[in-house]
Amino acid sequence: MTVLFTQRFKFILLILFLSVQVNGQLKKEIPKANTFSSYNYIAINNCKMWVSNNGQGSNEPSGREGFLWPGGEQANKSLVYQDGLIWGGIADSQLVVGGNYYNSFLNAGKVLSNGERDDSSLAKYRVYKIRKDWEQLPESEEKEAFERDYYEWPVDDGAPWIDTDKDGKYTFGTDKPYFIGDEVLWYVANDIIDPSLSLMHSKPIGLEIQTTVFAFNKQNAFNDIIFKKYKIINKGKHQINDFYVGQWADVDLGYAADDFAGCDTSLSLAYVYNSKAYDNVFSESPPSIGYQLLNVSGSKNPMISFTPIITNYSEYSLPHTSLSFYSILQGKTPSVHDQRDPLNGKITKFALSGDPVFQTGWYEGKGWPKGPNGGDRHLVSSTGPFNMNPNDTIEVVLAIIVGNKQGNLTQYNYLLSVMDLKDKALTVKKMFEKNFDWLSSPPSPVMHYLPLNNAVKLWWENDAESYDETDPFIDSRYGSDTTYTFEGYRLWQYSDSSGTDSVLLATFDLKNNIRVIRDYKYYNGALTDVPVIVGTDAGLEREITITSDAFSNYLPLYNYSPYYFGVTAYAYNEYSSPEYLESPVKIIKVIPGQKRIDVTYPYTDNDAVAPLQVKGNSDSRIKFNVVDPTALTGDTYQVIFTSTNDTLKYSLYNKTKDDTLLVNQEDFTAEKSDKPVIDGFILTVEDIAKDSIAAENTKYRVKSILEIKGKDGVVLSQPIDIMNNLNSTNRWQVKAKGTYKRLNWQVNQNEEGLGYDDYELRFTGTSKYYYSGYARSFNPIIKNDNLASDLLPFEVWCIGRNPESTEDDYRLAVKIWDNDRFDSTRTKPDSMWTHLENNDWEEIFAYKSSFDPADPPQTCGNSKFTDHKFGCLAISGELPDPGTVIRIVTYKPLADGDVFEATLKTGNLNDKESAKTNIDKISVFPNPYFGGNDISNEAQNFIRFTSLPRNVTIRIYNIAGVFIRKLSKDDFASYLDWDLQNEDGKRVGSGMFVAHIEMPEIGNKIMKIAVIQEKKYLNSY
Is residue 90 part of a domain? Predict the structure, then answer.
C-alpha cells in the first residue's frame, strides 16, 4: 500500500478504516490516544522490527514501515508496514473491540489496583531492551542503554525474571531478567482511554497487555524469526464473554501492490507472498512472511480462523464498524458474511487455506476463480472465544517468520520462499512440543588419566564421534537434516564420586558455526527457551591438563589429594526438540603426585618421536606425540601410505603385534587435540612438501638449488644454496628467469613436467645442445631446432626421487634460449651459449627426448611441454669450475608405498640407579600434622609418605627412640599412609616422631615428623 499512495493519502485511507460516517462525510483526523510514546527495535538477527509502548508494532517512529529484512541493524527493505494485537468481545452486554489497528488505541503503562491507568509519561513505562552479550559490547551509548534497562528491569510491573535463589521474590544482584532469546524487548500498555479516541469508539474494558518481544541470533532458521508474547490481563470490573484475540498485519512485501495471502491450518500460519516471480524491491528473490500462532492459553488449536483484508475487493474490504471488526475475529468477512470456499461453496473460517506451491485447494491466483489480482494484503488470524473474568489472564505466543529460498530457476523463487516459510514454521512449532526421551544418547566417552606433579592430564576416546541417530519427528520432505549428530564434549569436575556437585570446566565442540544450543525448560510454570550448551566453535579436543581445583576457587591442585572428573558427549540437531542429547557421565578419581623415584621413562608426556623412513623418499613431518609415557608398550609401529583414485591415505600398523590400529586416515594436519590416543601416543602426519608446493604461487616445486661438489669434484661438507646466492668461490650463482621466475616454466601451459624428481648439472663433461631463437612465448622451445656449433661444458641428468640410487637416473637433452629476453636490443642469435652483457649466461632448458642426448641428431624435432623438466635456468657470473655439480632439489610429497617406522620405548619400572639420585624427593604430607589434612576425613586421619620406590619399609619412632609402628609396601603405588596409630592400634599423641625409610638396593632416609592431635592422648607403647 505504501507504493500505491503517498504518505498523505495513506493517512486519509487510515481514516477511512477507522472513522464513522457522518452525513456521508469522513472525519479527516483521529487524535492520538497516547502522546507519550516510546519506541525501540529488535535487530539481533536478520530481521529488524520496531515496537512502541503504546502497542504499535512494525512501524517506525516516523510512521514508515517498521519490519525490515534482511540485514538486522542495516536492514532497509520493507516487509510489514504495521501490525498489532486486536480483540473483541461482549462486556456488560455490549460489543467492545480494541487493540492496535494503524493508530494506537492503547496507553503506555499498567493498570493500577484501583482500576485506573497509571501515568503513561513515566520513564519506567518505556520499551525496555536487553541483550545477553551487552557486557561484551564496546563502551558506547548503546551499551549504556542496555545496562540501564538490564538493571532497571521492571519486575514489579510484570517483566519476566528468573528466581535464581528460589525465594519467590526478586533480589537485585541475585535474580536476573528472563532471557527468552538473545535479545528481548518488553513493555506494558492498557486500553483505558477516552471512548472517543478508542477503536471504533468502543468503550475501554480495563485490559493490561504485557508484551515481550524476543529473537535469537543463530546461524539457522531462527535467524529470520522474531517472537512475540502477549500477556492479556482483565483488570477491569466486567466479565468479557465471547472474547476473541487476533493478530493483524498490514504486509508490504517489498513492492506492496503485487502480493497474495494465504494460510496453513496445520501450522496455525497466516502468510503473504509475492504474486509473481519478480518484485520491484526484491527483484528475482522475493521473500514471504508469516504470522504463526504458537500457543494460546486454554486453546487446543491456536488459530481458529483466518481472514485476509484485500483492498479494492468488496467481500474482503476494510472494516469500518465494530461489528465488521468483530466479524473478522470470528472468521467471517468484513461484510459480516460467512466465508465460503469458491471451489466447493462450503462455509469455512479459513480463507485461502490451499497450497499455492502444489496448486491444491483454495489459493490466490489460479486457485481462486474470478478472484482479485495481486495487491495490498492484510492478515487477521484469530483465536478464541474465551470468557474472561476479572483478573483472568490470556497468553498468546506468536512467531513472525520470513521465508526466502532461491533455486536454479528464478521464476519459482517466490514459491520456494513459501516452502521455506512453512519449513521454518514447522521447526518453530516443534519447539513447543514435549522433550523426547526415546532416543538413545551418545555413548559415554571412556576417560583416561595421568597423574602429574600438582596436575592431572585427562584424555578420552572418540567412540562418541560416530554418533548419528535419526529423529523420526522431523519432516524430511524438503531435505531437512533429520539426525542428531555428534557435536562436542563437556568436561566436568565433581566434588565427590557421587557427582552431587559439578562444575563445567570446558566445552570442546566442532568448528562448524554452532555455538549456542538452546532448549525449552520450565521456570515458574512457564516453558522457557534458554541456552543449555555454549560452545566455543574452536574445534574438538580430547586432551587437557588440569592444574587447579574448581571447588577451592581454582587454587592449585594438591599432590596426593583425590579429585573427581567426568566427560560427556552431546549431539545436536537444530530442527529437533530438544536440540541436543547428552551422554551420561562416568566419574573417575584421580590423585596427582610425583612418580616413584625408581621409575624412569625415555620420554616425557610432551615429547614427540620422529620415525625413520624405511621405504620411499618424502618430505614429511610425522610424529608419535607422547601423551602417557606409562602406557607405551615398547612395540614397533609403521605408518604406511597408500593411494587410490589419486587420494593419499595412511594407516598405523603395530608391527610387533601384527595389528592395524588406524585405517585409511586422511588428516594431514599437526593438530593433536582431535586425534585419538593410541597406546599412550597421538600420531600426527604432515605432508610438508605438498603444503609447501600449495603455499607457493603457480605450484613451484623447487625446494632448493645446491652446489654439492666444487672444483675437481670435491664434495662440499655443507651444500650451498646458490639460488640467487653466490657459490662457494663467490664467483657465480643460479637465477630463475622468465615471466614466473620459476624453473617449472611450463605451468603456464597447465603442465607440470618438473615432477618430484631431482636434477643435476654436472660440469664433468660436455654436451651437444640445441638453440632456440627469440619469440614472444615459450612455443619455440618445443619446436624443431638445430644443433649448436659448439659444446656445453656440462651435462644435465634426472636423478629421480632418491639421489642415493642411480637405478632411475637418465640424461636429458638441452636447449639454450639464444638471446636475452630482457635486453631491448635483443641480443643477436649466434647459435652459441653466450655470456651476456648483464653477466648472465643464456637460459638453459632440459627435456626428456626420444633420442640419446649423448649423441643427438642434427635437428631435435618437436617436443611436448610435458617432456620439459625445467627451464629458464641461468648461471650468473663466471663459469663454474670443472668438476662442479649443481643439484636442483624438488619438494617430494608423501606417496603411495612410503613407509615410516618407529619403536616407542617403555619405561624402567625398577631403576635403582635413578632412585639413588632422587632419594631427596621423598616427602611426607602434611608435615607438621595439625589434627587433620586435606586428603583425609574425621573418621580416618593419616599422613602420607610420597614418591616412594616400589619396595620400601618405614619404621617410626618417637623422639626418645621408642619404636611406634612399622609400615611396608611392595607394589606400584608411589605413596604409603600412616594412620597415626601404634603397633597396638592405639592413636598416638602429639609430639615429634622419626621415620626411618629403608629401600633395598637403593638406600635409607630419615625424616622428622611433627604431629599435633586435636585431643591429647596418653602415650602407650
Answer: yes
539's grid cell? 574445534
State residue 234 phi and psi, 5-degree precision.
-85, 95
The answer to whether residues 15 and 101 belong to one domain is yes
Last residue of a domain, one of 903, 932, 958: 903
What is the residue whose three cell numbers read 617436443? 863
* 870 three-class SS: strand
Burial class (CB in 10 A: 0-12, 13-18, 19+), 354: buried
On whether both 133 and 197 belong to a single domain, the answer is yes
Cβ atoms of residues 545 and 456 within 8 Å: yes
Q: Kindly report whether the peptide bond that precedes residue 372 is cis, defined as omega within 30 degrees of 0.
A: no
In this prediction, residues 438-442 reach a mean pLDDT of 68
Query: Which CATH number is 958's domain given?
Result: 2.60.40.1930
Residue 420 is assigned to a structural domain of this protein: yes
| Residues ≥6 apart with Cβ < 8 Å to 529 | 180, 181, 216, 431, 518, 519, 520
- Confidence band, pLDDT 50/70/90 cuts, at residue 4: very low
- Report DSSP state, residue 841: B
Residue tagged 610425583 (cell numbers)? 594
pTM: 0.51
Write the DSSP assignment of 368-392 as a string of letters.
STT-PPSB-EEEEEEEEEEEE-TT-
Looking at residue 1014, its amino acid is E
Tally of CB atoms within 10 A around 686? 18
User: What is the spatial distance between Cα 93 and Cα 86, in angstroms, rounded to a whole number?
Assistant: 20
Together in a domain, 826 and 680: no
H/E stretch holding 13 reads: helix 7-18
Count CA atoms within 13 Å of residue 544 on its CB side: 20
Quote the percentage of the chain above a pLDDT of 70: 88
Task: Show the domain range for 662.
Answer: 608-687+897-903
CB count in 10 Å sphere of residue 684: 18
Question: What's the pLDDT score for residue 672?
Answer: 87
Q: Give the DSSP per-residue string, 266-329.
A: GGTEEEEEESSS-BTTTBT---EEEEEEEEETT-SSS--EEEEEETT-GGG----SHHHHHHHH
Give the residue carrying C-alpha cell 493478530: 247
Residue 438 confidence (pLDDT) above 50: no
- 254 and 283 together in one domain: yes
Closest C-alpha to 212, from 32, 99, 120, 85: 85
69 and 153 together in one domain = yes
Residue 175 lies in a domain: yes
Name residue, grid cell 512472511: 289
The 10s digit of each residue's pLDDT in 44-102 is 988 999 999 999 999 999 999 999 998 888 899 999 999 999 999 999 899 999 999 88
User: At residue 481, does pLDDT exceed 60?
Assistant: yes
Same-domain pairing of 575 and 614: no
Do 180 and 311 reside in the same domain of the chain? yes
- Give residue 691's pLDDT band: very low, low, confident or very high (50, 70, 90): confident
Residues 6+ apart with CB under 8 A from 574: 218, 220, 221, 427, 481, 514
pLDDT at 752: 66
Q: Domain for residue 603, yes or no?
A: no
Tell me: do 508 and 529 sit in the same domain: yes
Question: For residue 822, how many other CB atoms are within 10 A of its CB?
Answer: 12
Q: Is the pLDDT of residue 303 over 70?
A: yes
Rounded Cα distance, 150 and 186, in Å: 11
Give residue-wise pLDDT tens across range 207-264.
Answer: 999 999 999 886 557 889 999 999 999 999 999 999 999 999 999 999 999 999 999 9
Residue 633: exposure state from Cβ atoms within 10 A (0-12, 13-18, ≥19): middle
- How many whole angstroms separate alpha carbon 691 and alpha carbon 694? 5
Number of domains present in the structure of the chain: 5
Domain boundary among 857, 890, 923: 890
In this model, does residue 748 exceed pLDDT 70? no
